Model the fold of this input.
Amino acid sequence: MISDAHLQGLDDPNQHLLVELLDRLNCPRVFLLGDLFHFWWGFPDVVYGDFVPVLAALHRLRRRGTEIAYVPGNHDFELGPFFERLDVQVASRLDLEVGGRRFVLLHGDEADTSVAYRLTRQTLRGGAFSRLMRRLGPARAQKLGHRLAGGSRDHGAAEPSERLIQAQIQLAERELRSADVVVMGHSHAPGVHHLEGGTYVNLGDFVRHHTWLAVTETGLELRQG
Ligand SMILES: [Mn+2]
Done:
């Protein structure tokens, strides 16, 4: 399970590190838990040149027989048209059983219930914004989206807010009432938390920590690189 690479373009070193990781994975399933791209607004039949290396790596991974699922993050829009053609499942959350344990997979931005965040989310996910992006077309939509997402190179370098980290723990506690393991990203704060109801793993990110979760027969391993 991998999330939050916030890839920015062909010269982003994290894109090549992520490609190397995807190319050496040898497992039945891979879960992408959001914000692989700093901004993605999908148009049918549009392949963004900036992301060809990672898209090709996902295609190779799928061709090797690995099933891939993508839970969109708050920087990902309209993933369906393109990713379903790559035979990647897109779902807003995933509830599944692995090795007899019930997993819930989320991006994790749901935890942020602040008014400002909810307003922004409502606007960006609304019909008016969608119509605007379609009118702009792929090149200008990506440009605008990138600006809205904050174009800075050192995105993700800032320390995650304690408020968000706590809100995610509370969300995990709620989900653990009906699950054994909750996995999310978004806060870029990697960690394995043993809570009363089960285990909550935050994936961290692939911007600065380069952390990801391996689910093996022996347990959960937060790995680096
Ligand atoms: Mn996010």
Q: What stands out?
A: The pocket of manganese (II) ion is lined by residues 34-35, 73-74, 107, 109, 186 (CB under 6 Å). DSSP finds six helices and twelve strands in the chain. The first helix runs from residue 13 to 24.
